[in-house]
Amino acid sequence: MISGEGYFKYQPINLFTDAIRLVRLLKGDQGEQIRCELFETFLDQIEGVPYEALSYTWGDSPDEYEVLINGRKVLVKENLYMALLALRQRGRDSVLWIDAICIDQSNDREKGHQVGQMRLIYECAKQVVIWLGPSNRGIDHLMDLAGRWDHRTRQRPGADRAQGWIDSWIWLTTDVTSYRRKETWWGEKQNLETLLLKFGTSEASDHRDSIYALLGIASDARVSNTLCPNYHVSLGHAICHTISFLLFDETYQPSARPLPENMDFPTFLRILPKLPDYILGWALQTHVDATAAALLPEAGDIKTLYDLKDITLVPARSPVSWIISSKVDFNRTFGAILEWEDANFLIGNDEIMQAVQSRRLHLLKHIIRHPSAKPNNLTVDKSGRLLSYAAMSGDRDLFWRVARIVTSGNHADLEESIRQIIARSKIIDRLTNKSVRRSSLHGIRTLWATTCALHKVLID
């Protein structure tokens, strides 16, 4: 907002209460300047001050128009100005709640407080006015039929057909989705992830709004204080706070459980359906072990499942935590992971099995590259399995890395363990077709020869 002589200046409101501002749109004839009065009230006293909540798109037009608030000048965006012209009445004043006017947009602390009350603000309104933009075909008809979306209108047959219009506009969808309609998408689960996937692509100028305005209606976020509007943080940090809530139900603490802070909003929406897998992959690639550990099964689950009595458990630590610890026996730990990832007998669904196989190779690739992952007296059998999985990955760099780890253990039986890889071609049978299998076997034989040579050089 422009400051200076003649321009309106906000007075602070009490952010420790449910205080809000309302704007009185003064009556006037066509052609007269828009005049308003801004005043403070409280949601718990709102019954004595009936008001309408305006829903509209902020738009991206650079044009601004002057209105008067409490006798002082304010510049508003074109779409809001058009809405005010359309809503102004000749014979009486109107009391409205309008985000761009009732919230001091230059005060991030106030903005976070008010956005946190968004759901109640819309629920307490006697009506919600949906401004779809200047007159054109289709919109005229919709405005004639349902320009005032009051409680009775929402219950009429076919009312939710207007949802298709609303999905394309924002300041966000809180105004529509707060209403308790029966036969709409409202029957779906309304958690934050679902709402972000449905409405996150709306064209908000500040993508933090795309998250925060949904908190009041998300079934999980509205009953938790873990994720709250905070306009003091960047968009990247706001996304991390959201990820931390979705995955761990905890407030984001970068020092305790880091997350990718440079993520943009389109990327966040793209990876949202597979958020745990994406963050796990990122954590393993960047060696953010605390985050990776939180996304893998607890160590106790593996020990119980396989009755691994010889593995010493560390409370609340996952297998990744063991792998990266210099005090832990790499052989036993990696063996536990291989057993867990190879749990064929637990999985009857082919698609799930393929996902497990893929995850196994994915984990192997990143775990084995971790700078502190060092083998401790690997057995021949475990060495063979390591090389087998590395060969199946089709990643030459990974195979060489594994080969170096294996040969550093001074295994005299390395050649025999690699021969066992070729003999166990049934593993490849399950994963590939014949042509790919022949290619894979050829690749393994080639790598076997070079690995043997490497082994001889290192041993000698």
From TrEMBL:
A matching Pfam family: HET
Coiled-coil region(s): none
InterPro entries linked: HET, HetReg/Transcr_Mod
Domain (Heterokaryon incompatibility): residue spans on this chain: 51-156
Name used for this protein in its record: Heterokaryon incompatibility domain-containing protein
